[in-house]
Amino acid sequence: xxxxxxxxxxxxxxxxxxxxxxxxxxxxxxxxxxxxxxxxxxxxxxxxxxxxxxxxxxxxxxxxxxxxxxxxxxxxxxxxxxxxxxxxxxxxxxxxxxxxxxxxxxxxxxxxxxxxxxxxxxxxxxxxxxxxxxxxxxxxxxxxxxxxxxxxxxxxxxxxxxxxxxxxxxxxxxxxxxxxxxxxxxxxxxxxxxxxxxxxxxxxxxxxxxxxxxxxxxxxxxxxxxxxxxxxxxxxxxxxxxxxxxxxxxxxxxxxxxxxxxxxxxxxxxxxxxxxxxxxxxxxxxxxxxxxxxxxxxxxxxxxxxxxxxxxxxxxxxxxxxxxxxxxxxxxxxxxxxxxxxxxxxxxxxxxxxxxxxxxxxxxxxxxxxxxxxxxxxxxxxxxxxxxxxxxxxxxxxxxxxxxxxxxxxxxxxxxxxxxxxxxxxxxxxxxxxxxxxxxxxxxxxxxxxxxxx
Length: 454
Fold this sequence. Notes:
Blueprint: H1 7-25, E1 30-33, H2 35-41, E2 50-53, H3 57-63, E3 68-71, E4 76-81, E5 84-90, E6 92-94, E7 106-108, H4 111-116, E8 126-128, E9 133-135, H5 140-146, E10 148-149, H6 155-161, H7 165-176, E11 179-180, H8 182-191, H9 200-213, H10 217-227, H11 229-233, H12 235-238, H13 255-265, H14 273-281, H15 286-289, E12 291-294, E13 300-303, H16 307-321, H17 326-338, H18 350-357, H19 362-374, H20 381-392, H21 406-411, H22 418-432, H23 439-453
Parallel strand pairs: 2-5, 10-11
Antiparallel strand pairs: 1-2, 1-8, 3-4, 4-5, 6-7, 8-9, 12-13
């Protein structure tokens, strides 16, 4: 069996082997378990090694005095070794699950019975580092060879026990480019509604892990839909299905197809969570704003006027429901709100464009625009224009501080509110464009404009 070839992974494995050796030296069985064995067999690096053992939790803590129990009732002890931490879990069987998340009780057992309580066959393997042998009680190695995600035992029971396993099945299929076993797929479709019982935080984490780690995240989105999970988690995204677009701009088809293509045009994993959510939600306002009206050629066509603004509002609602951080919400909604600005980028004043390029989310907005174009009309002229300007201005001096502040505007008679920001931006653009020689001249112009605006 080949190792990872990664120096840190090798150090982690060395530390894990030391734990196993100490447990075995005291007469106990101990193996690597779960995902690290799966990844090892697939030749994938793994920095997360779990250890399963016949050792009782109290004995584990006696053998490793610096360890601490995080789930002693479930037989789980955290052991520190070589600067890394490892979960050491006693072989266990599980009682009923009443909350769709954790078993009500456990009893300690042997490796074979421990394998039977795990989620998927490819995650129910053990590896003996002393003999370099795999212990496989449920035919997991064959499923690995065939590229199949299969629930251990009865799939309906597995998903009834822990509803989040349905999302984990999709994540493993998407990150490994595996398919779901037919019975596992059917059980998810039957049980999909149960995902509503899972906390928003756990759903959010699975959504992000899947879309940031999947080989083709657009396929993962399609699989959520086919299994009935998308409607339960993100009904606003499900609503993109069948929302037709103007063929001249979107020959690829409806908004859902466009979104899937954009996800698949993103770079290889891992991906930026802000970018992933921005792509997923950038057109979320289209169903609510769809109408018919004259286009630039005067002919009636499908229109989505204001879908960027409406989409930012809907995106914020979704992300708050998923309990995302304020920083992530602010960044994603900014990208959604701004994604149509590239239409007019070549007519933008230099000052306005330079200011936009300096905004924290601009690199993500630019990548969002690139995959947006590649997934529709394929016209990258605006993208190329901006990339050229970025290169040209890379060595230009830092933008100067604004001459006009909010306090200046209040002194001019403005009240707190959106107009403060508007006139600050207008004044700063005029300053950067060199239209006024100094602060006094700019302030005089501003007072004139404010007087006309009243």
